[in-house]
# Entry
Amino acid sequence: MATELDHVLAFLREAYRRRVAHRIPTSWGELLVTDDLPRVYDLNLALVERWDGDAVSLAAELERASAAAGLRHRKAVVLDQELGERLAPQLPVPSWTWADRNLVMIHRRRYDRPAGLSVEVREVDVEDFVRAREPLRRATGEYDEETARQLGDMARRVGATGTARFFVAVADGLAASSCELLREGVVAQIEDLETFPQYRNRGLARAVVHRAVEEADRDGARITFLLAAEDDWPQQLYRKLGFEAAGVETTFGRPG
# Structure
């Protein structure tokens, strides 16, 4: 019988596949490519489903396939739990600069306390969501203008599927915290949660996640989850909001 984690991993596989332009079958899984948005890592990656060798030999295979497809960066995603656990101690491989373990956290219990009533959370359309993110991208300096534009286009494509909703928490007239809610069937994912640095620790992220969970329940989702970096602090907030770690998404790569 399929577990909650099985349903979540199936959701993630299809979410990665659904939003890309091309799927290239390989001996180790699929290379996912979106030619017109090459800087968006989540639209251009290797979805690794199987591999009998070590991480170094796998990276060599991914290098060849990614280079042939014209990709500049490298990103590999491993959802198979046994394969991820076997490869993790060998990561990152030489010349690949990063490796992450993202906890698959499933909402299973009530939050520790309600969201603050003073926080206003609004549902917005995708264009308002993209506009709300523009000053955040500039404030953090994490992305250049072209990369930020491509990320906005990805949000528009996700919004066009009809399976996504967008929420913002407002402070001082600014969409200071925001997230996406993706749903397919009985599974929902809270994705792309971001908060302006100067508005952190004010309950905004708590409020926007709480609203997304409530809306997922109203939409009929029986399983609501999110991904959280294993070595970063947000997972502690998510635990307080009733999420529990159930599995791991393993990723590794290098920038373009």
